[in-house]
Write a structure and sequence with these properties.
Elements lengths: L1 H9 L1 E5 L12 E2 L9 E2 L3 E4 L7 E8 L13 E5 L11 E4 L3 E4 L2 E4 L11 E2 L10 E3 L10 H6 L4 E5 L11
Parallel strand pairs: 5-6
Antiparallel strand pairs: 1-12, 2-11, 3-10, 4-6, 4-7, 5-9, 8-9
């Protein structure tokens, strides 16, 4: 009987993500890429090179999420940037739009607003480095786990097969 139970636990089946809720994962899920995949903006604002004393920048371009091209940034310049957009290598700080007054191609820091180096920048691999175990074998798949599975590049997963059991009563 014990040997039979051991074999039942080893049985697995492949299920799509949408059909995996309520089942136990039969494998470790490893991040197939760094999450986030690239350094990106955590807020809408301007991308700048940090300089302690600077409070005004010339807005020279806009960076939107999903579209990236190499850009050159000087100390007195800034790019308008949207949440999730890739941060250019030369920028190290994102100042939120609500902390700025923007007019005629100039962004000025609002009175009382402060910024610090690296703020509002999500670094590549900050959430999870490539190769890290994201979800361990034996984890119960809930609706909250599905997005992480998808972020790890999975469309289906190996699950512990459900047991078939019956109760047999005798006199």
């Amino acid at each position: 009987v014990i040997d039979h139970l051991r074999q039942m636990v080893k049985r697995t089946e492949i299920r799509s993500l949408s059909d995996s809720v309520g089942f136990l994962l039969a494998e470790d899920i490893v991040a197939d890429t760094a999450l986030p995949m690239f350094t990106n903006a955590a807020v809408d604002g301007i991308a700048v090179r940090f300089q302690q004393e600077r409070s005004q920048w010339n807005i020279i371009d806009e960076i939107v999420a999903g579209h990236f091209r190499p850009l050159v940034l000087r100390d007195d310049e800034a790019f308008m940037i949207m949440t999730g957009a890739r941060v250019p290598d030369e920028a190290d700080t994102i100042i939120p739009i609500e902390d700025l007054h923007c007019a005629s191609g100039i962004a000025r820091l609002r009175q009382g607003s402060r910024y610090r180096s690296g703020m509002n920048v999500r670094r590549s691999g900050e959430d999870m480095p490539e190769g890290m175990v994201a979800i361990h074998s034996g984890t119960l798949i809930t609706p909250a786990v599905i997005p992480l599975l998808a972020a790890c590049g999975r469309t289906d997963v190996s699950m512990i097969a459900p047991w078939n059991c019956a109760v047999l009563t005798t006199g």
